[in-house]
Amino acid sequence: MTAALLEVDGLVKQFGRHGARAVDGVDLRLVEGEALAIVGESGSGKTTLARCLLGLIEPSAGTVRLCGADLASLPRRRRRAVRARAQIVFQNPLASLNPRMTVERLVAEPLRLHAGLRGERLSERVDALLGDVGLDAGHRRRYPHELSGGQAQRVAIARALACEPSLLVLDEPTSALDVSVQAQILNLLADLRDRHGLAYLLISHDLAVVRNLCTRVGVMFAGRLVEVGEAGAVFAAPRHPYTAELLASAPGAGRAALMAGEEAADPGGPRRSGGCHYAPRCARRAELDGPEACARDRPTLPDGADGAACHFALATRREGRAHHDEGVSL
Ligand SMILES: Nc1ncnc2c1ncn2[C@@H]1O[C@H](COP(=O)(O)OP(=O)(O)O)[C@@H](O)[C@H]1O
Ligand SMILES: [Mg+2]
């Protein structure tokens, strides 16, 4: 069995004592080299989940194990080393780069700090990293404001790669970029994954991006994972009514799929104490004339298997599906 790179159990993050739970009991597992996408509309808790996974914020409950080590129980020094195994690339590269540092310094910084490189070796490694992300030496002396959005994101990716991580968390890595640049960055990410054997946890509301980069997908609604499975299978035959809603709102190629959610009054959905978070909005529940279980019992994902956290999950339709999406196995 492949060793788990990331194991998350019962993760909860509540902001403030009386605040809603931005992440409300998430379990997930990622193995070496795997590419998992987390999709869900704005406000569903994706970024909060990512920040907990990387130890950037403390979870309120639950555990995060990275490379087999529980982050919370590690001594500070060891924690830093383990945390470096996972790096994050944020949505807005210009906001994530120090405006007073040149590209050269930005890329050198993690190498100095974590790998202790100096002088010639440092300089060579900076060149290699810039080459890796498709920037030439001419960019070394530039400041972030002198870069295009795509170039700045390449610098952010080079920084993330500096310590040779096993896992890259990509939080909407292309959504702040011009459409014409998005494909280039996606190609770069696909290429880097192949070359470095990286695992990806991709957060996106754009199903086209997910299809490009990921083999597995987890669908998040109101702080919970409501469906997990192979991307092809989930997209071809969603089992959770929310996944079905999400796909229905993404016509054609599925570009900018979940944008509608960004405008919604309560984008993350209600966080109620009992029952299913999705129940008030659920077409399936309405169709079944509001069964009580939806309001009473919290639906859970099947233990360690693909499926949906729904009392009345949609049956997977086997016939007539295979030819829509090659390689789908249901
Ligand atoms: N630092 C914070 N303090 C208080 N509430 C927060 C904070 N960060 C996020 N939230 C809330 O948590 C919920 C999930 O947010 P977020 O994780 O950013 O969702 P997503 O990335 O899916 O859009 C939202 O309701 C948001 O307002
Ligand atoms: Mg976010």
TrEMBL record:
GO biological-process terms attached to the record: peptide transport; transmembrane transport
Family annotation (PANTHER family): D,D-DIPEPTIDE TRANSPORT ATP-BINDING PROTEIN DDPF-RELATED, TRANSPORT ATP-BINDING PROTEIN
Organism: Conexibacter arvalis
Source lineage: Bacteria, Bacillati, Actinomycetota, Thermoleophilia, Solirubrobacterales
Stretches assigned to the ABC transporter domain: 6-247
Presence of keyword Nucleotide-binding: yes
Listed name of the protein: Oligopeptide/dipeptide ABC transporter ATP-binding protein
The keyword Repressor appears for this protein: no
SMART domains, per database record: AAA
GO molecular function: ATP binding; ATP hydrolysis activity
